[in-house]
Amino acid sequence: MNSKRSIFPRTFENHDFDLLLQAFDAGQERLVKAVSGLDAKELSTHSRPGKWSVKDIIIHVADAEIMGAGRIRQVFAEPGCTLAGYEQAVWADVLDYSNQVNEAVQTSLALFEMLRRATSPLFHRARAQDWSKIGLHPEHGEVTLRNLLELYADHSERHIEQILEHRVLLQRPLDLQLLLKERLY
Length: 185
Hints:
Layout: H1 17-35, H2 40-44, H3 54-77, E1 81-82, H4 88-94, H5 103-125, E2 134-137, E3 141-144, H6 145-169
Parallel strand pairs: 1-2
Antiparallel strand pairs: 2-3
Helix pairs in contact: 1-5, 1-6, 3-5, 3-6
């Protein structure tokens, strides 16, 4: 591991650990609730120019979770490893999120659920010394297992917040309170 200093945001460093676990564990259920009742047109509507649709967001969340599940396992099992990076905009373009069939939303939600269900037990069985295991993240430098919990708990909440904003613009608001009120970045 090189000595690159961590630039990981400190937003959640004093946050209650149980709240972070709760946000991580509830992510899939909350995403399903956030998109509930939206029809195919609403899922595909770009509410703001240049921004992703709800469908794009859900597909992105599943793709990001694939990377996250791998990163979490790497840090847990191989402390000091270098974590793979990816460019979300490139994935969205090359994987053609916008032109995916609307069924991709349900498939992506199911994939996200399975990845969270497979990863959550790792977090719940982690011992105190496991939380300080590190990996080298391509954007954030050194990150701990705890930082990865923060990152992925925030990630689902961030996109739930975006979907709720879309719903307001679509005149389909939903009363769903955020578990994490702050964003990492």
